[in-house]
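[Automated response] Your request has been received and processed.

Submitted sequence:
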Amino acid sequence: MTSLTTDICRASVLAAGVLGLLAAATVPSTAQQQPQQPPKGWFKACAKQEDVDICNVQNIVSASTGQVVTGVSLLEIKGKVNKKVFQVTVPTGRLVPPGIGLQIDGGKAQKLDYVLCFPDRCIAEAPLSDQLVASFKKGSELTLTSVNSQNQGNPVKVSLAGFTDAFDGAPLQQSDIEDRQKKLQEFVAKNNEDFAKKLKEEQEKAKAGN
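Generated structure:
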């Protein structure tokens, strides 16, 4: 029989896949000069998945390639499964025992244990308590630290600006979600085009110098 934790993870992953919940990006220094920027910040999306209703308040940090660097989700699941879950998603290649460290404004770190890994990402989670939500509303910045295969910590900072409005407000409409996804896809395509152009220019310079 499938465990409750696996059911919850599967439900949240299904929700992300159906809604296209890529929302933000961390842009490399070479791309920060580009005028085009991806959609950023906290937002809420809700959907029905089989026997459960899922609302997800989230902020996803992506690389210019579209790969998720760190995803933060506050999930409320109702129906066949009833649970509130806080999840953090990071790429694979992480050391599992250390988990993910969560700090709010430099306070005491809380450890989040990994519960599920896919070929492209791993998910850590903890119960979503009223206290944690209140801390997010009062705070200004999250620091989420995973440990890579070289035993080095990889801290990622996530602003809490806009969290309260997203958490207490209405979910985005499907059209708004599709618009965010389209803008992110356009941003990734533009970055890839600029990178290919720059690479070609560097190759031509190298040939001219020989």
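Summary generated for your ticket: Residues 1-6, 8-35 have pLDDT under 50 and may be disordered. The first helix runs from residue 4 to 19.
If you did not submit this request, please reply to this message.
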